[in-house]
Design goal:
The protein has about 270 residues and is of the alpha/beta class. The chain has six helices and 16 strands. The protein is globular, with a radius of gyration of 18 Å. Bound molecules: flavin-adenine dinucleotide and FE2/S2 (inorganic) cluster.
Length: about 270
């Protein structure tokens, strides 16, 4: 992990309030693994608002060009600042951060990746890494509407099997991606499963997997401050055999955790 200044190669608007920023960084392209993130200073040098850096998953890495990308939705001041940057601007970030996915420890050949909304961002990088290892990948993605229509083309370029659902039917089939998983779960029983998305998606998946005694990994998000395990601002509750419950920091212990161990407040 290092404090880095990286030049922006491109900053594209790819949907409504949805952006992809590509940054030149030999250090990140060499060292990042899927699931890791960077913490970006989202204001100019002479200002301090927002004071805290903002975390973004590494969404894609192009090793030949030594560039990586983040994909993000504009939510507040920090992401608004990022969306206004141009090619050749320099951003200040720390990374790669977090406990990502160690591809060398993976033995299975079949993978199911389940993304909800912007949760597809880190899973796309993971899919690319798995395909480079000749693994079989099925991508299941769910969206609210048609804002992520470009994602089909991205998956088609990767030549993997995929299924897309949207709540209003404007992208893929109409409905929730969790309903698709529920219907087809027996086909994926032997797969390694990784998911990333909103809490409601995680709660639904926990129920589905619990009934079938299937384990899955999840990439979690929490509002962060330091990003390196010091402030304890990003803790989440998990089941623990010895003490009942344990709190873990998403930035340092995660963001990758066992989905079945997460405790979501009702
Ligand atoms: C490990 C990690 C990886 C992430 N990866 C991505 C990514 O790839 N793409 C992306 O668009 N976003 C990602 N996020 C969320 C992103 O960090 C927030 O959207 C961003 O910090 C909002 O900053 P802001 O200043 O624009 O908005 P703020 O003004 O800070 O907040 C605007 C709204 O967003 C909510 N928000 C702020 N931070 C988070 C957060 N961490 N998680 C959920 N909601 C939040 C706030 O509660 C508020 O409602 C990630 C978060 C984490 C922890
Ligand atoms: S953000 Fe400080 S401990 Fe995670």
């Amino acid at each position: 992990m290092k404090l880095i200044k990286g030049e922006i190669v491109s900053n594209e608007r790819i949907g409504n309030n949805l952006y992809k920023t590509t940054i030149f960084s030999p250090y990140i392209t060499k060292n990042a693994v899927p699931g890791q993130f960077i913490n970006i200073k989202c204001c100019s040098d002479n200002t301090v608002d927002p004071l805290l850096r903002r975390p973004f998953s590494i969404h894609d890495v192009e090793y030949d060009f030594k560039v990586f990308s983040i994909m993000y939705e504009v939510k507040g001041n920090g992401t608004h600042f990022l969306s206004k940057l141009n090619a050749a601007d320099v951003i200040d970030f720390v990374g790669p951060l977090g406990n990502g996915i160690n591809i060398n420890k993976i033995e299975n050949d079949d993978f199911l990746l389940i993304g909800g909304g912007i949760g597809i961002a880190p899973l796309y990088f993971f899919a690319k890494v798995l395909l480079a290892e000749n693994k079989n990948v099925f991508f299941a993605a769910g969206f609210k509407d048609g804002n992520f229509l470009l994602f089909d083309k991205m998956l088609e370029r990767l030549k993997i099997n995929y299924e897309i659902y949207s709540e209003n039917g404007m992208h893929g089939s109409k409905g929730m991606i969790t309903d698709f998983i529920k219907k087809r779960i027996d086909d994926f029983k032997e797969y390694d499963i990784y998911c990333c998305g909103p809490v409601e998606m995680y709660k639904a998946l926990q129920n589905i997997f619990c009934l079938k005694n299937i384990r899955a990994k999840a990439l979690f998000e929490e509002i962060m401050a330091c990003g390196i395990g010091v402030c304890k601002g990003c803790v989440m509750k998990f089941k623990d055999n010895q003490n009942g419950y344990i709190y873990k920091s998403v930035c340092k212990d995660g963001p990758l955790f066992d989905l079945s161990e997460a405790v979501f407040e009702q």
